[in-house]
């Protein structure tokens, strides 16, 4: 009498996870930014700092040679130095934050949102929207500073044909803003080229 061992039970198939629980597809790494683009992004990020410091110095009463503190504060209710200081700090913070975003075009957080940000942390950045926003920003700040601001200064009649030390200081503080738009445009172009060169998954 012969006996046969029972066949071992077949392993039960693993339960399939719903598609919503599957990890997101991994995007191939982005090619590194060229060195010139990294340097251009850094210069663009710092281009708004000198003019912001000039405005703060004006409100604090430091002689800047172009405009008197009282003349500037006359535009605010009761000539309030506190409101004037809050205004220039807010303008400086907004400008610096906007220029700082240029660094995202050459750093990893311009491709994947850092996880420290709630709700959107870890999400992939839409490269097309980033390029569109950066291009519009480059156009806006270029027109603002090249055409309206410095163009207006060059065409405005001056009572004194000479150049004072205060005017030199003013131009030195605001001239870096002329670099912001063109540098942002160049870094945006580099960002677009890097995304075009990304390997397909």
Overview of this structure, please?
This protein has helices at 35-46, 49-59, 69-73, 81-100, 127-155, 165-174, 177-196. The mean pLDDT is 82. It is elongated. It is mainly α and 201 residues long. The chain is built from 7 helices and no strands.
Task: Reconstruct the topology from this structure.
Elements: H1 35-46, H2 49-59, H3 69-73, H4 81-100, H5 127-155, H6 165-174, H7 177-196
Which band does the percent of strand residues land in?
A: under 5%
Q: State the helicity in percent bands.
A: 40-55%
Structural class: mainly alpha
Distance between the termini: 61 Å
CA radius of gyration is: 28 Å
Give the H and E element order.
HHHHHHH
Overall spatial form: elongated
Q: Determine the number of helices (DSSP H or I, runs of at least 4 residues).
A: 7
The overall average pLDDT, rounded, is 82
Largest sheet report: none
> Which regions are unreliable across 5 or more consecutive residues at pLDDT < 50?
none
Secondary structure: number of strands: 0
Key traits:
201 residues; mainly alpha; 0% strand; 7 helices
